[in-house]
Amino acid sequence: MIPEIGHFALILTLALAVVQAIFPLVGSYTGSRAWMEMARPLAWGQFTFALIAFAALTQAFLTDDFSVAYVAQNSNSLMPQIYKVSAVWGAHEGSLLLWAMMLAGWGAAVARFSRNLPLAMVARVLSVQGMITIGFLLFMLLTSNPFDRLFPMPVEGRDLNPLLQDFGLAVHPPMLYMGYVGLSVAFAFAIAALMGGRLDAAWARWSRPWTTVAWVFLTLGIALGSWWAYYELGWGGWWFWDPVENASLMPWLVATALIHSLAVTEKRGAFKSWTVLLAISAFSLSLLGTFLVRSGVLTSVHAFATDPTRGTFILIFLCIVIGGSLVLYAWRAPSVSSGGNFDLVSRESFLLANNLLLTLFTALVLFGTLAPLIYEAMDWGKISVGFPWFNKMFLAVMPILALFLGVGHLTRWKHDEPARLVRQLWIAAVLTLGLTGLAFLPAVSGGYWLVPLGLGLAAWITLSHLTGLYDRLRHKRGLSGVLADITSNSRSYYGMLLAHLGVAVFIVGVTLVSHFGVEKDVRMSPGSSQEVAGFRFQFDGATPANGPNYKAWRGHFRVFQGDRQIATLEPEKRSYLSGGMPMTEAAILPGLNRDLYVSLGEPVDNKGDWALRLYYKPYVRWIWLGSIFMGLGGILTLSDRRYRSARRAEGLDPVGAAGTARI
Amino acid sequence: MKSRQKRLMFVSLGLVGVAAAAALALSALRSNIAYFFSPSQVMAKEAPADHVFRLGGLVETGTLQRQSDGLTLTFVVTDNAEKVKVSYTGILPDLFSEGSGVVTKGKLGGDGVFYAEDVLAKHDEEYMPPEVAATLKPHADAAAALNAAQAGSQRAAPGVTQ
């Protein structure tokens, strides 16, 4: 009964979405206030029914209702309760339901937090969101209904893929999807602005916080995915340039470009058409990511589904979204005034460079991801593009971005004097060069020229931002003035600072773990020990250890630094009862400056010898720490006063005030 | 500078950058792609002798052997027509098993053995890498049953540091 309620609620959501896509939009053109005002309640209605559908599926999982095909395929009565909940989005149908629920949630959030927006804008934004919802719900109901029943009903479920029975994977997809779906709001704002023919600073200011929220979720979602892959896949890699990883990276890169470009549009009224194009691209790339993952066109670590009807549907949907919005863009954008002149040395130029480099890198990643498909379609053979290619491209583009990052934030809008920049930055530059020179010493660099390059860029970003901070605070009166600056009215500045420092932290992590990580595959007998990077791993044999739905071998290791024991590590090799799928659970001793990592391979003989992996991963945590800084920076920016009281900001900001005539 | 000149300069700088990036991307691609070959193609000497490529097929049952060092493994990959012996040093992915699909990446040695540096195995018992499925010879009735319903592959890459 309850699954049918869920199914019915989904259909009702679709019906509401259809109404929401049509009436408010028409109303915004005919000037019918009543029709426009339908948008908000409809968005709430959609969210309510989507929540009911989601709750129904969750209930089916919690009560082990194996008559629902999706539950039978992805759950098992022995599974711990928490994984029964996360199994709801563990595979194709459920993750779409999560997508749809979040989409409706974002719609409701727009309805709730749009008091300051003109009604016509709200109506159009929610209409566009309604259209996206229609696409997704049709896809779900026609090709992947999570509520399909199974007859006869199986006694036991097939179990969730063991890789997914894990905390990291319980939280990674919702985060990532919040980001993907959040970009639909930026997209809807851009389309609504195009429809209205008014791309102005006010539009950029409304769109900015939404884009930042989506970006924060995307940043944290990708970082969580990387962390999960690191500890759960058992080989200690944190990024593989896997197509599905690329599918999440591309929207992130474009969204990063977008939040910077929106800043220019808001402050200076420039880059308007470009900003719209980025908003369209960011969401299109989210959809493309969904297509790549869901259609199974590419073989990859995460591909859940391979079903041509689904692939075709998403492809058509993708074409409608991208094609439709580009047509609208081509029709409307030429009439947008270019506005906002600026000189070669100005903040606009640096932000333009940021945008171009991020877009260029996105294009390269897209090319590398799709190259195997292109080759196959052209009958040039079946290829795979190895990660060295992606690394090379990353190294060709990103260091330039990091170099500019150290200058752009100190440059003035519209026009700046190179001499002034040199005066402000020379100390930071000299220190950076000195530190880079030090890092060239073989003791630090280990003979790799990329090590001083990476560390030098991180130092440059850090020092130049500290310079900016010092110049900002030096005129404040004492500590209380400084504190007042931090707590009161310039959170967006500190958000920027934190996010940019996050980039530096990230660079340090990537540089060091890439060059100084040690990975050793060894054979060990009980009682023997191995030395890795100055740490001694003592193997005390493996013993059986069983869990609720698996059998396992547990290895026992003691780790010594010198003569001092610093940890015991107990990696496991599990075999899940349903399906007998083996699964490696690595044991990790985390640390700010290094991780030690042990994972069991397989027993070599019957005397208790094992083939296993010992890893030393210096500064690997800094990769995720940097991402967390970026995310926190975004959150800090959102708490800026200007977003909390838009009314007041309008009074202060002449550009904004000019553009906010209300209906 | 006039704004038109400025715009021209921005545009030409952009074009030069894009052209440079495209040239770099394509030239780097040539040395970083790995073509896929089936055991039959390898036996017909279609695969390059000096370049990394991918070899895929079924792991023949009963051929997995561990060498005396405890870490080197050998197994035979077949497309039900021809067979190629593969040698790999390191730890195999969890889902590697005899009788199911595998894709390996490496070089062909002068002795006819394929020395793999990277082994990819399927995620669960129903998955077959699409390249492997396409090259399997018809009498593989087992292979027909192994059609891709739930997909994904897992990788063992000891030399991979990122």
Explain how this protein is built.
Chain A is globular. Chain A is α+β, with helices and mostly antiparallel strands. In chain A, strands 3, 4, 5, 6, 7 and 8 form a six-stranded antiparallel beta sheet that branches. A four-stranded antiparallel beta sheet of chain A has the order 2-11-10-9. Chain A has three domains: 1-165, no CATH class; 168-336 and 344-412, no CATH class; 518-621, no CATH class. Chain A has 23 helices and eleven strands. By secondary structure, chain B is of the alpha+beta class. Chain B folds into two domains: 1-33; 36-156, OB fold (Dihydrolipoamide Acetyltransferase, E2P), CATH 2.40.50. Helices cover 28% and strands 30% of the residues of chain B. Chain B is built from four helices and eight strands. Chain B has helices at residues 3-32, 39-43, 130-135, 141-145, and strands at residues 33-37, 53-59, 65-66, 72-78, 83-89, 101-108, 114-122, 153-156. In chain B, strand 6 (101-108) and strand 7 form a beta hairpin. The longest helix of chain B is centred in the N-terminal third of the chain and has 30 residues, at 3-32. The N and C termini of chain B lie far apart (46 Å). The interface between A and B is large, with 66 and 51 residues.
Mean pLDDT of chain B: 75
The name of the CATH architecture of the largest domain in chain B is Beta Barrel
Largest interface, by Cβ-Cβ below 8 angstroms: which chains and how many residues each? A-B, 66 and 51 residues
- Radius of gyration of chain B over all CA atoms, rounded: 21 Å
What CATH calls the topology of the largest domain in chain B is OB fold (Dihydrolipoamide Acetyltransferase, E2P)
Major beta sheet of chain B, specifics?
Answer: 5 strands, mixed, barrel
CATH superfamily of the largest domain in chain B: Nucleic acid-binding proteins
| Content-based structural category of chain B | alpha+beta
Strand count of chain A? 11
The number of helical runs of chain B is 4
Q: How many DSSP E strands of chain B?
A: 8
Q: What is the global morphology of chain A?
A: globular
Percent in strands of chain A? 5-15%
Helix content bin of chain B: 25-40%
CATH class of the largest domain in chain B, named: Mainly Beta
Strand content of chain B: 25-35%
State the oligomer.
Answer: heterodimer
Kindly, what is the distance between the CA atoms of the first and last residues of chain B, rounded to a whole number of angstroms? 46 Å
